[in-house]
Write a structure and sequence with these properties.
The structure is a homodimer of 371-residue chains. The first copy, chain A, has 371 residues and is of the alpha/beta class. The first copy, chain A, has 2 domains: 261 residues, Queuine tRNA-ribosyltransferase-like (TIM Barrel, Alpha-Beta Barrel), CATH 3.20.20; 92 residues, no CATH class. Helices cover 39% and strands 19% of the residues of chain A. The first copy, chain A, has 14 helices and 16 strands. In chain A, the strands form 4 sheets. Chain A has an 8-stranded parallel sheet. A 3-stranded antiparallel sheet of chain A has the order 1-2-3. In chain A, strand 10, helix 7 and strand 11 form a beta-alpha-beta unit. In chain A, helix 10 runs parallel beside helix 13, helix 11 runs antiparallel to helix 13 and helix 12 packs across helix 13. Chains A and B meet through helix 12 and helix 13 of A and helix 12 and helix 13 of B.
Chain lengths: 371, 371
């Protein structure tokens, strides 16, 4: 393990873990939820307000930053954290997922991914070596290997081939690294096949990664299938390294994944839903545009310490109905705060040995519609 | 004068004045610049960040709030200030200017203005009595009389008639008021005719207003004509009541108007220009989209204490080029801070008896393009 980086697991409850992730830019408690700063900005929320939500670590997207402003401009600005004014740890993905979901005319060979930018159509190649080079220029605390993502459902043969190619790319990514101050995570693939997930995890753990991610989930497979895939994976990952479930997810997904032993999460849902006036609370989701909130003097959530909850629902609904930018900003701040409160609550439950009780209390709340 | 409201002039320098405006929601130093919260929101900037710019008093638009969410919803939320979470004084305009600039099928009679909403086409009437009723429901510290605004250039006959109608409406507004905790300002009209401005001011000062505004300027007449109209007006206003130049303006306009004895300003320019990546500095305007800022590691302005100036120009330019909401937010915060620093600098100059020197130093800066 690179000096300066690693997880200390401080408590377990069943397979759930509570710990501390040390990085070169500070330590953060786990389970950990990373807000997504796609283009080095958590959409609409200034970095001080992001910190106030309780966030400890931020994710940014390599694909997007490579296109705009380009990794050299980020590097000239002192690297991702300094460029965006964030005084804490950061993580960049490899760009693989965005290539498969956003780019045009994608062609994947053993060498890498070749595609056209969704912004200006320019031709771009993303090999494992180039994915690492770009991430080293971006300079986050954690870089991710390039993997091949397969849309589910898919033939086992296709999933198997992508998993094995991802393993070969994992070795190329490790061989390409040069920075002593950047951790690298391998990514477990294998779709919904438990034996492929196990094989991927066992092969990756033999490689000198500082952590491991579970990729290719939350792509429409549903919570049961996701849970199964996770339970087929985490027992085969080392206990002394962080485990990161990429791009997940809904609050109930996070509870289930923490139960399965995941330490780290990222997701665009709090900000994306916030921009669309959908608000998370511990009593369920609230659709702010509903007319019942027109004169609703309650905050979004009683007891929530966030900036948005100093206002009434009536006010924030008005902002959305009138098309004021501040509506999306405030709802995003609330949702980001909600996710931080959620992982903090799960962490406290693990430490107290009450995880099962707390999870059983929380899960039904997240599938109801709040008032 | 209503108890709880009034200006204390603490220093003069030529015709420029520095003082303190007392209101029911606190006291604020003058000259005073009010950010515009059109729909009870300073576009994109949360109210805590607005306070951090140094703003002491905020303006909102009666016409817009009447349409959305409606004054009753604002009243149920505790009035304008509490509705938007602002812990300080507020002012509402009468809606007159927006009726003449935004509304459709406007018909003005002696009774009032009749028009259709620019949002949904619904028929609305705005008489002097109704303008005051709506503003009393909104509950700002300062309400404005309804006036008839004439687009310039206009025939003297047309300007004269609108000025006299505005005087009659002024009396009707005063007769309609019922709140003991809301000041009301009369509005001087008269276009660019000095004698009409003088006649309007002298007639208004005989009425029991708590302050006086200069209306109908900054509508394309140019800085020289604006200055002339101001100098024809302010000598005829009482020295012991606040003077407010509505909807003005560019930094140089503010310097010139303070020189002419104006105490209060509001303008959408800092936020509107900010949203369009135009940044004010004491070395001139900066167009952030210019390629020269792509790797510019300087802040928007050296020595500026604002949130945006913790970032590089390179970062904020990137936000604009990538279409990130945070770009407009940060540029708005900077520009709002710039306007507060400008009026604070003018105030300090008046107190120090150095206004002419400071104004002569500042004015040429505002007509150059910054680097």
């Amino acid at each position: 393990m690179h000096a300066g980086f690693g997880i200390t697991v401080e408590a377990t409850d069943g397979t759930a873990r509570a710990g501390t992730l040390a990085t070169w830019h500070g330590s953060v408690p786990t389970p950990l939820f990373m807000p997504v700063a796609t283009l080095a900005s958590v959409k609409g929320v200034d970095i001080g307000r992001v910190a106030e939500t309780g966030a400890g670590m931020i994710l940014a997207n390599t694909y997007h930053l490579h296109l705009r402003p380009g990794e050299e401009i980020v590097a000239e600005g002192g690297g991702l954290a300094r460029f965006m004014g964030w005084n804490g740890p950061t993580l960049t993905d490899s760009g693989g997922f965005q290539v498969f979901s956003l780019a045009k005319q994608v062609k994947v060979t053993e060498e890498g991914a070749f595609f056209r930018s969704h912004i200006d159509g320019s031709a771009i190649d993303l090999t494992p070596e180039r994915a690492i080079h770009i991430q080293e220029r971006l300079g986050a605390d954690v870089a991710m290997q390039l993997d091949e993502v397969v849309a589910l459902p898919a033939d086992r043969e296709r999933v198997d081939a992508a998993m094995r190619r991802s393993l070969r790319w994992a070795e190329r990514c490790l061989a390409a690294r040069t920075r002593p101050d950047q951790a690298m995570f391998g990514i477990v693939q294998g779709g919904l096949d438990g034996d492929l997930r196990q094989e991927s995890a066992e092969a990756l753990r033999a490689l000198p990664f500082e952590g491991f991610a579970v990729g290719g989930l939350s792509v429409g497979e549903g919570p049961e299938a996701m849970g199964e895939a996770l339970r087929a994976t985490t027992p085969h990952l080392p206990v002394d390294k962080p485990r990161y479930l990429m791009g997940v997810g809904q609050p109930q997904d996070i509870v289930n994944a923490v139960a399965a032993g995941i330490d780290m999460f990222d997701c665009v849902l709090p900000t994306r839903c916030g921009r669309n006036s959908l608000v998370y609370t511990f009593a369920g989701q609230v659709r702010l545009r509903n007319a019942c909130h027109a004169t609703d003097q309650r905050p979004l959530e009683e007891g929530c310490p966030c900036l948005a909850c100093r206002h009434s629902r009536s006010y924030i609904r008005h902002l959305f109905m009138a098309g004021e930018m501040l509506g999306p900003v405030l709802a995003s701040i609330h949702n980001l705060t909600f996710y931080q409160r959620l992982v903090a609550r799960l962490r406290a439950a693990i430490v107290a040995g009450e995880f099962a009780v707390v999870a059983a209390d929380l899960l039904p709340r997240f599938t109801t519609v709040g008032e």
